[in-house]
Amino acid sequence: MIAYILRRLLFVIPIALGVSIVCFALVYIAPGDPLNTLLPEDASAETIAMVKKAYGFDKPIPVQYFIWLGKVLTGDFGNSIASGRAVTDDLFKALGNTILLAGGAVVVAFSLAFVMGLVAGYHSGGPVDRAVTGIAVIGVSIPNYWLGIVLVIIFAVELNVLPATGMGPRGSDTFNFWEWDHFRHLLMPMLTLSMIPIGIITRTTRAAVAEVLNQDFVETLRAKGLGEREILVHVIKNALPQVLAVMGLQFGYLMGGSILVETIFTWPGTGFLLNKAILTRDLPVLQGTILVLAMIFVATNLVIDLLQTMVDPRLKRS
Amino acid sequence: MANITMSPADAVAVQGAPAVRVRSYWQNVGYRLRYDYLTLFFGAMVMLILLSAVFAPLLAPMDPYESSLINRLKPIGYKDFILGTDELGRDILSRMLYGGRISLTMGIMPVLVATLVGGTLGIVAGFVGGRTNMLIMRVVDVFYAFPSILLAVAISGAMGGGVVNGMLSLTLVFIPPLCRVAETATSQVRNLDFVEAARATGAKTFSIIRVHILGNVLGPILVYSSSMVSVSILLASGLSFLGLGVTPPEPDWGLMLNTLRQAIYINPVVCAIPGVAILITSICFNLVSDGLRSAMDVRL
Amino acid sequence: MRNFKTLASAIAVSAGLAMAALPASAESVLRVAMTAGDIPVTIGQPDQGFEGYRFVGYNLYDTLTLWDLSQGETAADIKPGLATSWDIDPNDHTRWIVKLREGVKWHDGCDFVAEDVAWNFARVSDDKAPQFNAKQFADIRNRTGIIDKVEVIDDHTVAFITKQPDALFPYQLSYWFMISRCKLTELGNDYEKYAVDPSGTGPYKFASMVAQERLELVKNADYWDEKRIPKHDRLVLIPMPEATTRAAALLSGQVDFIEAPSPDTIPRLESSGMTIVTAPYPHNWSYQLNFVDGAFKDVKVRRAANYALNRSEFKALLGGYMIEGYGIVPPSTPYYGKPEYVYEYDPEKATALLKEAGCHPCKITLAISTSGSGQMQPLPMNELVKSQLDAVGFDTTLDVMDWNALLDVGRPGREKNPQIDGINISRALQDPFSALIRHVYTLQHAPKGSNWGHYTNPEVDTVIDEIYAAFDPQVRMEKLTKLHEMMVDDATMLMVAHDVNPRAIAPNVKGFVQAQSWFQDLTPIVVE
Hints:
Chain A: Belongs to the binding-protein-dependent transport system permease family. The complex is a heterotrimer of chains A (318), B (300) and C (528). With 318 residues, chain A is mainly α. Chain A has helices at 2-29, 45-54, 61-73, 87-122, 127-141, 144-158, 180-193, 195-214, 216-223, 228-257, 259-265, 270-280, 283-311. With 528 residues, chain C is an alpha+beta fold. In chain C, α10 (299-308) packs antiparallel against α12 and α16 runs antiparallel to α17 (473-489). The chains are: A mainly alpha (318), B mainly alpha (300), C alpha+beta (528).
């Protein structure tokens, strides 16, 4: 097993290198000079040349890549062109905020979806099943940024019960999950972001539960005279690993996929950072954020994969 | 977004149907579909949506580009404006119909192209194996390491807005998963006895692929790519919403959501129309894909 | 390692470690939602366009000449700031003698002296100086580039030697912020540290910053201008680039003061009791034209385009929140004058002019952006321009790009973009140089300057040279007026609208007077 884990870890290295090349190259396809936002709109040619040199953009691109990669390996993502701040500081702060948001969304989604999926799976084919399946389809089909806008209008503007934007009354640095005045800032973005995982986890749970119920051993258990409650425990036990795996994967997706929701709610996470960096072509921020998010995605997938393999060794990949 | 978690390996549960039964398998699929009324209904809805987009010039009551500022942001049913007007006083219904052309194209084209490209790459990788497989699949792995929205946003952000760039970036997003589906399915079939037997009898590589592999691999690929259409529609509208997709004055549902958002306090109902359109279209594509999946008996 | 700690603490919060709640305070707080996407940099010259100058620059810092923002009746002009007087040496028109204010203290307690001015000049000009900063250099280069050197005469007098005579020089000084030599030296010239511990002489002191989210300033009770000591205790600045988000934040009570509500949100804001304040200010939503390559090299075509626009429709689009643009500067500007040509909507004349010019249909391409500083509502407005131009016989193509890409077209000028006939970058017209000279002066041809379309007119150049040499304010005003009239008559721009910069203010916020300027004074505001 350990050898297998090591092999899988080794396998990640070329992927990581590839990802870093893609991240670095991406921003060089871009039309538009990264220095534009840095300079006043009527900066003269000599000023531009001088600043270009100061930021190292005058070097050949491969050289810039290796300089960048070397620094990244020591945890230094350079400084933002726009704000001058260290990218590492901004990025890891934003990452914490996104983890909170995506983690919250997945937990909410799991709690709702697992119950719904369980009920639907039990009553496969019935009206409850159809209702739940309908909800699940809406969850994966709704443009969540649009839902976010609608929620803001309802709960912030019309009813005035939830804040429209931001993270906590005094910013993310003092955010306190356990204080209602802070926590309520999290509610709408979290719910909005949880729509897709609700849909997906519900479907997975429903399918897994229905499958378990169809298996012979359930009949055997029933024949043995076990109560419905014990059978339920068995069903959950058998369906849970698969559902948890999907939940983990969803977390990975939300980490990279919260960009629209964060933009709507001005949630100071990685998506917000990324959107801003795209608009201002802030290369160091763009490269760093994409790289870190992709690596988190790779890591989440790997961990889930390994956990699943431990539970069921037949899943080993060659 | 939707279905995106379905790992390609899961989507593939090749039935191991021997080549001789290929035709009857497809007949079975047709038979099952014929009696799946729900899928038929939503299939009809999809056709309706597609037709309304194709025939937008015939159906649209007005010029989708013609603005009239006295008539801006009018409610549903105002004068001849069946769905009201937008921020420049243009007819929303006409813009929705024309907008469907772009939104649906951006949803379907990337998936089609990615199916062709990714599917071909995957079949080649799975059939040839060895170094070729190694090379193709490792490159795919790199792109697979990005969450789909992140990759789409990053690529279109890098290349700049526009329909073509948007479609290109979405195509790149869908190639890796489709390639994986095809590769997994192909390598499973490749080692089955009947393919070995065909090889032994000296059948040409191309005809082996055509007859044996394609027959067995097509199902999973079709199911997977059909489930990607709604994802693609949502991603495309998201890109336009961020200002990375369609550029104005072209009508597009995602972009309309973005521009109408400013007027949400004046006319909330009209502003909600593009969102509803995206939702309904996405639901229809999702349900049709579900129907296909169960008809083709491909396990989720 | 610090970063990983931040991450770890964020995880800890989500994992369930409670943190101490902040004590409530009775101080009066003004919370402002800005349109910027991030907090403007705090190290002297801000970024985020003039919004950064407005909220961070002039609050933390002072300039030698300051803008007088105390009234909204007439266009704002400069007044004494850290300098009490500025005079041209009568024998040498490149030498300005500037007297500095005495008794001014930096927020860190050091005294403000002449040496600080010389040190600040090296900061933005001499790449060998330890306090030099490339970004700051780039940001202020256009203003300080004229300065050859700074001489310290005594503790409170400096002399500026300019490279050539420039009667408008005192205006250039109004953009250049003085930062504390004491503080930066103490921090080892480390601007990253200085950004979170800055020191100026302005009416507010730095309190705290949450990067990307909020900047908190507190009032400087010892400010040298007693009239401008803030009437509230704390000023919170929050970046909020989405207009709908700003409106929602104001309506839900998260902020008290928002910048630039979009016109379609204003009726709702008003019905909820918010006050909408507006004032004309030196802004022009227009197109700079290509005078060399395309159709616009013919003045008839330029005039036709100007006659083709029905500006009242733009006003309807913007809910009335604009001034119809018939000049380069808004009509309340002192040097507006009486241009011969007034381009009232006249489609027949426009068509006739196009036919006369032999350009019918007249193909043009306009480069526009989807968003950007000062661009108002770029998409619907540009779509309206296109439809009105096409109605008189133009055949307009809109080349839509993002703000950055548009700047990329804007910088190098028409030479690199001969296919573009007009570019829609709204420029700040704060002072005469920015408003007029840079758009038409031959020496300002892009990429060196901002004359994007390479307008060349010897008569105009002569008038500009006279302005530079006119140290008598009255003579200068006459020349400026003449220049503006010439620019309008020769249709050097496609003139559309002047923004009136609406702001929405919560009912408990009193005392704000909107000046006719890009900059505003928040100090008189009382929060009840």
